[in-house]
Amino acid sequence: MTHELLEKAEEFEKRPMSHMSTSDRVKASREAKSLILSINEIYKKTKDSKLMETMKNITAKKRKIEKRLKGSPLV
Question: What is this structure's pTM?
Fold first, then answer.
């Protein structure tokens, strides 16, 4: 289970985010959320630092996607 989850996370991290449609961004954001939550459940039990690093990387990518979805404020 953990091994498959880490493979999915690694694949998600390497996936290019340029030239994505809005629906692709929404799907990617949801996928990132589910990956983070799944990894977090395992992290709570094992306290493995590699899992924490993976979660941080996915969260950073998720924030970039969501920033692009919401757009920048017009100030």
Answer: 0.79
Dmax (CA) of the chain: 46
Domain ranges of the chain: 2-70
Distance of CA 65 to CAs 3, 4, 32, 45, 46, Å? 25, 24, 10, 29, 29
Distances (CA, A) of 36 to 19, 47, 55, 67: 24, 14, 6, 18
Q: Quote the tokens at residue 3.
A: 């091994």
Q: What is the CA radius of gyration of the chain?
A: 13
CA distances from residue 27 to 7, 14, 60, 75 in whole angstroms, order as listed: 18, 16, 16, 29
Written as six digits, the tokens of 48 are 């493995």
Can you tell me whether residue 48 is helix, strand or coil?
Answer: coil
Q: Per residue in 32-45, pLDDT tens?
A: 999 999 999 999 99
